[in-house]
From TrEMBL:
Coiled coil: none annotated. The lineage of its organism: Bacteria, Pseudomonadati, Pseudomonadota, Gammaproteobacteria, Cellvibrionales. The gene is tatA. The keyword Transmembrane helix applies. It comes from Candidatus Paraluminiphilus aquimaris. Part of the twin-arginine translocation (Tat) system that transports large folded proteins containing a characteristic twin-arginine motif in their signal peptide across membranes. TatA could form the protein-conducting channel of the Tat system. It is found in: Cell membrane. This is Sec-independent protein translocase protein TatA.
Amino acid sequence: MGFSGIGIWQLLIILAIVILIFGTKRLPGAAKDLGSAITNFREGMKRDNGETTKIEENKDEDAK
């Protein structure tokens, strides 16, 4: 059993359906776009967490 109850056979069927829908020529581009989106999301989360920390530090300094 794999991710959340999905087995290898279900994953293979989903992969086959995706290949039928999008074709093999567009899959690498779609995977690259998905990877870029995930990378940008992670960078944004890191930036957001850094800004939140800086804001909290400024509030602490102002309170003193």
